[in-house]
Amino acid sequence: MAARFLVTALVFYQATGQEVASCQDCAAESGEDASFLQATKAKGPHIEAAKGGLYIDNKNPWARSAKKRYNHHRHMHEKVVDSTDYSQDATDVYEKVKDLSLEERCPRVKIMTLDEVQDRWNEAFADFQQKNKADGTKAYKEALEDLKADFADALDNAKPVIVKGDVPRQLGWKAADHWGKDELSRFLGDTTWQRTTFNYPDWIIGLNSRTSLKDYLANHDSKENVFLFASENGCSEDHALKSLVDTMRSHFAPSPEWGYPPEACEAIIAVDGIGSSHGFHCHDPVWNTQVSGTKHWWLLDPFYGSNIVDSAGYMEWGGAPKLPNSNKTFEFPNGCAMLKEVQPPEGAIKCVVQPGEMIILPDSWMHATCGLTEYTIAAGGWLGGTAKEDDKGTAPK
């Protein structure tokens, strides 16, 4: 079967005001269920209240009990569009946090060095080699993918970690020198990007139009996002945006040994303006490196997400968090609202990420972000997923 490639360069828009409407129509169009607000949610991992937040009992984790998910961001709740301008709130928060230490910016997230993470991977891979023969079979490849998918869980008891230092330079990325606002516009300004908006429940909606990166950076950097996404199923040679994806991926190669190599088309790139946001959502484990600018993250453990498994055995990915002890959801698609306007969901972990730092998110952790500076760009990829035919299962270097 020919590899399928889904790649989207996204521009998220903010206008004025906020709209709440029914999503029954969009669900009917997509064939997906819009009754999430009325559904009984199956409980995820056991959560117990404790001083300083909520903690997961991982004795019986549910995230790995279902197949890895490829149904991205299902329609699970009523439609909410937040088009408020949060740029001033972002500026105010940035002034308060810009000189803080990493420990102060991310007080509840474990901090590691890139070498420490690599050492943990080397240990895990060595143990894997003792138990699995590198024979190139499908079973071996799938086992290796599962090792990568579970690796984030092993770093801090299935909780996120942040990697300190200048990760892009440590990995030898071209992006370290060429992804500043002026540099990126000069090198890739004429490349074509697809324009897409962000709201609940759709999460990402293509606007059926494109723009050059140069025009976006010049005209929309204050209130819009660009997000480049390459799917789990690889790159199609005839895809209209493949050239752009190839160029962007080459700028953040090599990937960490425990992540997908860039040539596998498992890339994630996000360009955000000040006060622009990726609202709460969850998915398979990822790593995300901040190359330029400062971004605010809010993290929620998997208890807040969907625990619904479809007929094929795949667990749905979701948007708005399901609030504990209620039938309500957190209906704010723009994470920047949590800077001042609304309280984050109970138990939310805050972390402000600055240039050079990397976040590693385990499976199903819900997260939202807000750009705190005029221009931010981050790159990363997935951990685990579909075994590739050309994956030789080589040892990390």
Outline the structure in words.
The protein has 397 residues and is of the alpha+beta class. It has a single domain (7-14, 67-382), classed as Sandwich (Jelly Rolls), CATH 2.60.120.650. 23% of the residues lie in helices and 25% in strands. It has ten helices and 18 strands. It has an eight-stranded mixed sheet with strand order 1-10-11-18-13-16-7-6. It has a four-stranded antiparallel sheet with strand order 12-17-14-15, with no helix packed on it. The protein has a two-stranded antiparallel ribbon with strand order 2-5. Mean pLDDT is 71; it is low at 1-77, 229-234 and 386-397.
Write the layout of secondary structure elements.
Layout: E1 7-12, E2 18-21, H1 24-30, E3 46-50, E4 53-57, E5 79-82, H2 87-97, H3 102-105, E6 110-112, H4 114-131, H5 138-155, E7 161-163, H6 167-170, H7 175-178, H8 181-188, E8 192-197, E9 205-212, H9 213-219, E10 225-230, H10 242-250, E11 267-273, E12 277-281, E13 286-292, E14 295-300, E15 349-353, E16 358-361, E17 366-371, E18 375-382
Parallel strand pairs: 6-7
Antiparallel strand pairs: 1-10, 2-5, 3-4, 7-16, 8-9, 10-11, 11-18, 12-17, 13-16, 13-18, 14-15, 14-17
Organism: Cladocopium goreaui
Keywords: Signal
Protein name: JmjC domain-containing protein
